[in-house]
Design a protein that fits this description.
This protein is of the alpha/beta class and 154 residues long. It is 25% helix and 26% strand. It contains four helices and seven strands; from the N terminus they run βαβαββαβββα. The structure holds adenosine-5'-triphosphate and magnesium ion. Magnesium ion binds at residues 39-40, 59, 79, 106.
Amino acid sequence: MKTVKALTETDTQKIAAALAPLLQPGDIVALWGTLGVGKTAFSRYLIQHMTQTAQDVPSPTFTLLQVYDTDAFPIYHFDLYRLDKPTDVYELGIEDAFIDAVSLIEWPDKMGRLLPKANRLDIRINVDGTTRLFTFDSADASWQKRLNTWQVTI
Ligand SMILES: Nc1ncnc2c1ncn2[C@@H]1O[C@H](COP(=O)(O)OP(=O)(O)OP(=O)(O)O)[C@@H](O)[C@H]1O
Ligand SMILES: [Mg+2]
């Protein structure tokens, strides 16, 4: 487990950029945290870093899914807040994403038990005053290994 403090949004941007080289196709990044804590902001910086553009990365609040191409793999950015029932994720093509894309999932609890354990990194964002605390944790052996050697400098 790793905890990193972000005092500003630029720190959040640096944390997202630091995570980018760790990502592999098939990874699932579950973003946990309350409304407005910064799940989309973190995803936006990660996507902009991976696509090497300052492109618009809208919140998938209403579309539930936005897909981005990078040189390495597609990124599927989900916001499941408005998902009616867990099985509705199949209609979003989530199984394809799990095979060869990287999935960023906001409100992953909406998938219930359909949220896989394998290849999953859990990022929890907490607010403490104006500070955001990012906690990176995983039950997946490959991710534990990656996190153990990960150095984040902000
Ligand atoms: N250090 C920080 N990291 C991330 N966001 C920050 C930070 N400081 C301030 N913010 C602001 O906090 C807000 C985070 O909103 P964002 O939409 O990313 O939250 P969210 O967790 O995705 O919310 P939702 O649950 O509605 O999807 C943005 O307005 C952002 O500018
Ligand atoms: Mg969001």
